[in-house]
């Protein structure tokens, strides 16, 4: 049982304490299942974040773990998840093949990714706002426009880096970029007296997937560094 910790906090603590992964490579993965709370987490070490991305981990939770756990088939769910993880690690090219076959847009609009994207957009906006202030001190109108442009490019790049699937969702990326540009420009104008801007509101989602938790993992001893990569879920 998690008690007063979130599944993310518990997974991070276990990952560090167990030193999961090889020293210097940080290539460990922790599959945490908390059965009593019906929560789970796939925690990924730094060395595997490029192969087991947040979206890949989320997909494993939604498609391999959660459906089996809802039917109390815990062993089957775990076995399926570990098989997919091993396949992805042994053959990173499968990631590219998945992209060629087509991206499941439901994954892009998942609550976990939406929550992560909204948090990134907020932090990115603050950085871009300060940067524009420094670069265009005398022109307040340019400050607002550049804030919007910089943040739009930043958020779009962040999305593409995670999705890694450009052509088929080019229009969607344009929409995201346009919306972020408009919102960032409006908020920047509101925060910049004399720029003639009006305030705007942005609303971010909060995350959660279906999945389960219990405490399994790969232990290597010597690793233990994770940047929070992975995904969480419930069932």
TrEMBL record:
The chain crosses the membrane at residues 117-136, 148-165, 171-191. Residues 2-86 form the TPM domain. Keywords: Membrane, Transmembrane, Transmembrane helix. InterPro entries: TPM_dom (IPR007621). PANTHER family: UPF0603 PROTEIN YGCG. This is TPM domain-containing protein.
């Amino acid at each position: 049982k998690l008690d007063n910790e979130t599944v993310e906090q518990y997974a991070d603590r276990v990952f560090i304490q167990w030193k999961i992964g090889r020293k210097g490579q940080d290539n460990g993965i922790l599959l945490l299942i908390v059965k009593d709370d019906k929560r789970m987490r796939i925690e990924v070490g730094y060395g595997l974040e490029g192969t087991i991305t947040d979206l890949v981990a989320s997909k494993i939770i939604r498609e391999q773990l959660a459906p089996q756990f809802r039917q109390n088939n815990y062993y089957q769910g775990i076995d399926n998840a570990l098989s997919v993880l091993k396949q992805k690690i042994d053959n990173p090219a499968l990631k590219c093949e998945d992209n060629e076959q087509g991206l499941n847009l439901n994954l892009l609009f998942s609550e976990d990714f939406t929550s992560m994207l909204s948090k990134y957009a907020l932090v990115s906006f603050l950085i871009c706002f300060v940067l524009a202030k420094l670069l265009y001190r005398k022109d307040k109108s340019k400050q607002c426009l550049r804030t919007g442009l910089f943040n739009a490019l930043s958020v779009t790049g962040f999305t593409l880096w995670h999705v890694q699937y450009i052509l088929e969702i080019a229009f969607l990326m344009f929409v995201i970029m346009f919306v972020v540009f408009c919102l960032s420009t409006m908020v920047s104008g509101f925060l910049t007296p004399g720029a003639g801007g009006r305030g705007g509101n942005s609303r971010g989602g909060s995350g959660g997937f279906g999945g389960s938790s219990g405490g399994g993992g790969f232990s290597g001893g010597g690793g233990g560094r994770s940047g929070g990569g992975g995904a969480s879920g419930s069932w």
